[in-house]
Write a structure and sequence with these properties.
Layout (H helix, E strand, L loop, with lengths): L11 H20 L6 H15 L6 H8 L3 H13 L3 E6 L2 E9 L1 H22 L3 H12 L3
Antiparallel strand pairs: 1-2
Keywords: DNA-binding, Transcription, Transcription regulation
Organism: Amycolatopsis cynarae
Pfam families: MarR
Length: 143
């Protein structure tokens, strides 16, 4: 039995799934000309943001900030390093850890990609953004 006798269209989770897929398609299309996947964008933009705030995060800090799996983060960070968008440096406080710094090319690409994704967000969420943002923040915080 379902709590939604009207069908899946009355289920917030099912609707969120469809909205998420539509938004992800739009973001993917915007990032494609920049040569980034959505996950690469999230991690590069997060590394850029943290560095702009004066941090030199390690991979665990980056994963926590981005909300990504640590193992996946490591794989994507390696790809971003291959693309010369991030540098991994040994953490002086822990030789097993790697600190992450966006390269000049990475900082430039992060800024361009953020502008592209913010444009998608503005188009996609439009006039609903002011009402949606506090709700999404509350849901993301687990309240």
């Amino acid at each position: 039995m379902t709590r939604f006798p009207e069908g899946p269209a009355a289920s917030p989770g099912f609707l969120l799934w469809h909205v998420t897929l539509a938004w992800q398609r739009a973001v993917t299309a915007a990032l494609q000309p920049l040569g980034l996947t959505h996950a690469q964008f999230v991690l590069l933009a997060s590394a850029w943001w943290l560095s702009e705030q004066g941090e030199v995060p390690n991979q665990l800090r980056l994963a926590r900030h981005a909300g990504t799996d640590v193992k996946m983060t490591s794989q994507i960070v390696r790809k971003l390093e291959e693309k010369k968008l991030l540098r991994r440096e040994i953490d002086p406080a822990d030789s097993r850890a790697r600190r992450l710094r966006p390269t000049p090319a990475g900082r430039n690409l992060a800024r361009r990609a953020i502008a592209a994704v913010e444009s998608v967000d503005a188009d996609f969420f439009g006039r609903h953004a002011p009402a949606l943002t506090p709700l999404l923040q509350e849901l993301a915080d687990g309240r």
